[in-house]
Amino acid sequence: MTMEWVNETLMREFVFLGFSSLAGLQRLLFIVFLLIYLFTLGTNAIIISTIVLDRALHTPMYFFLAVLSCFETCYTFILVPKMLVDLLAQKKTTSFLGSSIQMFSFLFLGCSHSFLLAVMGYDHYVAICNPLHYTVLMGYGVCVGLVAAACACGFTVSLVTTSLVFHLPFRSSNQLHHFFCDISPVLKLASHHSRLSQLVIFMLGVFVLVIPLLLILVSYIRIISAILKIPSSVGRYKAFSTCASHLIVVTVHYGCASFIYLRPKSNYSSSQDTLISVSYTILTPLFNPMVYSLRNKEFKSAVRRTMVQTSYPVN
């Protein structure tokens, strides 16, 4: 009875040890991460409000960009505030229920993000390879449907994965060597888990990462083939520059995610995972708005127009 009571107690909460080895730097990390987080929220707010308010940006490309910014805003909101609190707190814990909610929300937004990048690749493909039929093929209803499909896939994957992980028995330790409830650190705490559950989780990772990446690669093979047929060098440069931002974001997103979720469990390293996780939970959401929008001349012109309209509204 005593052992059962201890096991039940351990299941009530997890203790985060993600930055425990950097105890002397935690206040500095708090300031740095807080500034990055506030800047990320600000840039995403500018992107979303500008796209909503400026009619010139009411196109499929900017619609998907606004959705991507929403995903990243919610994504950071789920992870970063809790991490900031833990950097200053003596007791860095979260409840078992809170952990499962965090994992589900994080996976839902992350998986939806992966599928949305594939949708954006398809949008570029249609715009460059079928420009005459673009408005028909990428109408508003189609765009909303593609986003809904990405969210539905993300919801399904996150629900199945979270259910599999949190139905495992946790009886050894509640000390999580990470700063949030990611899959590998939580699985490491499980007293045992079947090969079937491991295989299902791995296959879901393949579905979320490999399949969208293959779709993006197919889209870009067709895009490059079409661009090389453009006689004008200016036209080729404009087409390539349109796709460059998306390719950069795809490389960073799928590179980090594949390293975390598609490697063998035997290669798991808590210190490496913490470092990579910081990059895609804090730095990538900061990096993406700058790559996609703030270096885009059309978008910067739209920001200026929106600022003028809101500062001096026409009666």
From TrEMBL:
Keyword Ubl conjugation included in the entry's annotation: no
Transmembrane segments: 28-53, 60-80, 100-122, 134-160, 196-218, 239-262, 274-294
GO molecular-function terms, A-Z: G protein-coupled receptor activity; olfactory receptor activity
Location of the G-protein coupled receptors family 1 profile domain: 43-292
InterPro entries recorded: GPCR_Rhodpsn, GPCR_Rhodpsn_7TM, Olfact_rcpt
Keywords of the record: Cell membrane, G-protein coupled receptor, Glycoprotein, Membrane, Olfaction, Receptor, Sensory transduction, Transducer, Transmembrane, Transmembrane helix
Superkingdom classification of source: Eukaryota
Membrane-topology descriptor: Multi-pass membrane protein
Listed GO CC annotations: plasma membrane
Pfam family name, one: 7tm_4
Location in or out of the cell: Cell membrane
Function as written in the Swiss-Prot or TrEMBL entry: Putative odorant or sperm cell receptor.
Annotated protein name in UniProt: Olfactory receptor 10K1
